[in-house]
Recover the amino acids of this structure.
């Protein structure tokens, strides 16, 4: 009798221990699974770009001013209409396409400096603001957590770094090349410097107008030509297209003034019988200027690494 009770008690304890063990295993498995799911979510959560909140209405247009030229816009629904402002490549117009839409919608923007912007949009008959300056807002955000979008033409160069180099060269305004210039009709065109960084050239130029008649730029060419025929014919010319410029090309240089610019080009070299021509043409005029750059000038390009960039 005593022995049977002992056996039953022992079996009961074994059953309780087994149940406890199963509960522990299940709890541990759930914990591991939850931890794995958290680990899976964490990297994406850490990289989340917080959207800006924005209100729009049907009868009024909202304007967003971006620090750089708008390159891409994607609207989340047909509740919105948007477009770049005429003659203002960095200004986006947005308004509601229908009245009183209830669900939240969104849109995204990529700018030429490689920045990505996300907006959550709500309808309001009386928006709390109609104009937004993203330059002021973005400066604080990008210093804390940059979100560069890489463009094919820039290869592995972040657009924000490229723009910082262009701006630094422009603002430092150093004159490191002394012998490449053109001068006629009171107009002087100067190549102030050639810089190189990560497979890209930066050409720093200045155009001076010593007359009282404004000089309006029509277009600027970079082309490679034979030294002997560069002045007479277009045979065997090869154009090199700038990837970016610091300032728009449609400039007007007033009388007794000067304007500089910085051009970004892919890295290249030329043979001894070739020359790089940088040509600036006057709109409705004939005071064109041409700079001649030899290969010996290209290979002396100054490295960017030692410059203090303006971020």
């Amino acid at each position: 009798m005593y022995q049977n009770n002992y056996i039953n008690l022992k079996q009961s304890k074994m059953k309780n221990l087994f149940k406890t063990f199963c509960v522990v295993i299940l709890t541990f498995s759930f914990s591991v699974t939850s931890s794995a799911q958290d680990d899976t979510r964490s990297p994406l959560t850490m990289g989340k770009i917080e959207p800006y909140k924005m209100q729009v209405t049907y009868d009024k247009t909202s304007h967003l001013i971006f620090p750089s030229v708008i390159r891409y816009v994607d609207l989340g629904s047909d509740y919105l209409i948007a477009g770049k402002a005429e003659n203002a490549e960095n200004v986006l117009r947005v308004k509601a396409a229908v009245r009183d839409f209830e669900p939240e919608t969104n849109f995204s923007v990529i700018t030429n400096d490689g920045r990505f912007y996300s907006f959550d949009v709500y309808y309001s008959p009386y928006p709390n603001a109609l104009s937004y300056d993203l330059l002021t807002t973005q400066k604080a955000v990008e210093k804390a957590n940059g979100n560069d979008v890489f463009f094919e033409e820039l290869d592995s160069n972040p657009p924000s770094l490229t723009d910082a180099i262009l701006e630094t060269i422009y603002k430092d305004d150093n004159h490191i090349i002394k012998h490449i210039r053109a001068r006629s009709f009171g107009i002087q065109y100067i190549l102030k410097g050639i810089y190189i960084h990560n497979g890209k050239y930066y050409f720093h130029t200045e155009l001076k107008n010593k007359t009282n008649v404004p000089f309006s730029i029509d277009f600027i060419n970079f082309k490679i030509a034979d030294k002997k025929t560069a002045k007479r014919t277009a045979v065997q010319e090869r154009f090199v297209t700038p990837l970016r410029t610091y300032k728009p090309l449609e400039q007007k240089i007033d009388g007794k003034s000067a304007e500089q610019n910085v051009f970004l080009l892919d890295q290249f070299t030329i043979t001894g019988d070739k020359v790089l021509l940088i040509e600036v043409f006057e709109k409705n005029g004939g005071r064109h200027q041409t700079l001649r750059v030899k290969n010996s000038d290209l290979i002396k390009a100054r490295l960017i690494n030692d410059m203090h960039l303006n971020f």
